[in-house]
Amino acid sequence: MKMTHKSILGGLIVFCLVSCNKDANKNLHLTGNIEGLSQGKLYIQQVQDSTLKIIDSIIIKGNSKFDVHINIESPEMLYLFLDRGQTNSIDNNLSFFAEPGTIKIETTLKYFFADAKITGSKNHDLYVEFSEMKSKFNDKRMDLMKIEIENYQNKKIKDSIGNEALKLNRKKYLYTANFANIHADKEIAPYLAMSEIADINIAFLDSIKTKMNSDVAESKYGKMLSTYVDNRKKTENKAK
Fold it and tell me: Is the pTM of this model over 0.85?
């Protein structure tokens, strides 16, 4: 059958409408560029039942830029995994706090994690702020460990270092709890509560839970925190 220009144009219009409607049902537009990458695969991963599962993939061939639409139920931590093919590297997994809208990821093949610049997510901006402070706490912890190793035969110094480590850990926990309380209107709050300080005194977690707004409370991490707090309260009350 000979196709007319009108039938070809009509087919293109139908294809466009189907594609547009398909993307319209996906609330996260993820774009980016990996400088230096000419060939490889990117996998977008999500934690499901404590395991990382692939929810979408992108083939890079000749063009280091990528553009994909996916759907998320609520803001959550996702992972961009780079399959380097024959080249192995531990620098191949990039976490980012995704939320509906457009998020742009710019990085390099050489320093996939370290060079990453992620824009378009308020939750991720807060996650970066928290991570920078967390890194400072970890650096101090490493300094204490170094002193402890250098003086492993000196019990007095080892005991002193042990006490300092406990104080440092308490400061880290209190900083995290305070950070989550201040930003209880964002999904980063219940995420940090569950991932960083789940074993803190229940009063701190209950405070974060109470301060969450309705949107955050109904999010993936908000529901997890609420369930966890309620269960801990029941368990601890029974133990009294």
Answer: yes
